[in-house]
Amino acid sequence: MWLHVGKLCQRLNQRPYFLPLKVCVQKLHSEFTDSNYGGLYRGHIPTTHIQKALLAVGSGVAALQNPYRHDMVAVLGETTGHVALINLRDRMRNNPEGYTVLTERPRIRLSTLDLKKMASLPDGSFGREYLRFLEDNHVTPDTRADVKFVDNEELAYVMQRYREVHDLLHTLLGMPTNMLGEVAVKWFEAAQTGLPMCTLGAVLGPLRLNASRLQSLFTSLGPWAVQNGRRAHCVLSVFYERRWEQSLEDLRQELNIEPPPVMLSATKKKNN
């Protein structure tokens, strides 16, 4: 079955199904951002249901055309994830460590990371492997945008935490930031979080993969990601900032996450 789906995705990838959106979501987003709105938290932009729908459709199309447009991916997640965020918040509340995260609200930024200490940790430790992921893939946690369109202060933090934990999931799952690695992580996140943004990425992401990568996704990485996303403990209920010295293997076992069936190189090219 997976191979048939993979062949269908490859055929769809060769056809111009997705046309540019007439409504410029970037302009709409800019107008909201530049206006003076009173918000529930710093940076909050209150929006109506119609405005949220426009932002969701526009950002969805823009993100599909260019999955590396993290600003559009962020808007899509915020405008479609209300129910899933409530479920994630409740899971965190019902977990002692998750409740502590909700209470203390740590942020994962370069300003909050002790990179020198993390670099001194032994190979195989979670902190050292996370730093290696950042270096190998040329990414930084500071690229994660602040939440703007979630109309609940606590749920806004849950979304922010999910966003900043994303790179930690790459480390836990052993996935680089190339397209195949991102799709595999999205399959895990869709099964784990229920966020519509993740589900959309999991369904449409394969359209950008070539034949060999599709085969790897549908026969190996995809089933592994979905299975582990469903059975793993809530990944937002971990105070990762206090786990840097823990071994990556032990943390995986604690969260009930299996190592990846195949290892991918940290290259970032179209359709790789």
Strand content: under 5%
Q: Indicate the radius of gyration in whole angstroms.
A: 18 Å
- What separation lies between the terminal Cα atoms? 22 Å
* Mean of all residue-level pLDDT scores: 85
Low-pLDDT runs of 5+ residues are: 1-25
For the sheet with most strands, the description reads: none
SS elements, strand count: 0
- The secondary-structure element order is HHHHHHHHHHHHH
The rough form would be described as globular
Report the total helices. Answer: 13
Work out the helicity level. 55-70%
Quaternary arrangement of the chains shown?
Answer: single chain
Class from helix and strand fractions: mainly alpha
In short:
The chain is built from 13 helices and no strands. With 272 residues, the chain is mainly α.
3D structure, described in words:
It is a single chain. The protein has about 270 residues and is mainly α. About 60% of the residues lie in helices and about 0% in strands. It has 13 helices and no strands. Helix 1 packs across helix 12, helix 3 packs antiparallel against helix 4 and helix 5 (about 80-95) packs across helix 9 (about 155-175). It starts with a helix and ends in a 17-residue tail after the last helix.
Topology:
Layout: H1 2-13, H2 25-34, H3 49-65, H4 70-80, H5 82-93, H6 96-104, H7 115-120, H8 126-137, H9 153-173, H10 179-193, H11 196-204, H12 211-231, H13 248-255
Structural descriptors:
disordered N terminus; single chain; globular; mainly alpha; 13 helices; 272 residues; 60% helix
